[in-house]
Amino acid sequence: MFRQILKKQKLLKVKQTQRPIFNNIFGEEPEKKGDKKFQKIYQNSLENPEKFWKEAAEDINWIKEPTKILDDSKAPFYRWFPGGLLNTCYNALDVNSFFHY
Q1: pLDDT, position 38
Q2: Three-state DSSP class for 48?
Q3: Is residue 3 in some structural domain?
Q4: Residue 27 belongs to a domain
Q5: How many domains does one find in the chain?
Q6: Which of 11, 22, 27, 92 has a 20 to 30 A CA-CA distance from 42?
């Protein structure tokens, strides 16, 4: 019921096509650690972490989209997703309840 009230008040924005987090990267089911697909994804994440996390962030419901993926202007004090705002509880719990109930 709380979800319906939020939708009516347009406080809750749900991507209708959104899948559980990281399906964008791994496909329908995360691969086992020993699989070649996982190893390829892992290697790509090491070689180009900014691209990897940009793709992962596409599955997150942002209240405010980040201005960039990685701010390395004050290295070694890096900032991931600067300017971005999200509700961690919503992304961790509420989104999953939409897919399981």
Answers
A1: 82
A2: coil
A3: no
A4: yes
A5: 1
A6: 92
**Bridge partners, residue 86, by sequence:** 62
Map residue 42 onto helix, strand or coil: helix
Give the Cα separation of 7 and 62 in Å (integer): 16
Strands 85-86 and 79-80: unpaired
Give the single-character DSSP code of 60: S
**Selection from 97, 24, 11, 83 nearest residue 57 by Cα:** 24
The pair of structure tokens assigned to 92 is 């961790």
pTM value is 0.59
Question: Is 68 part of any domain?
Answer: yes
Distances (CA, A) of 21 to 42, 66, 91: 16, 17, 8
pLDDT score for 53: 93
Range of the domain at 67: 15-100
pLDDT 10s digits, 77-96:
999 999 999 988 888 887 66
CB 61 within 8 A of CB 91: yes
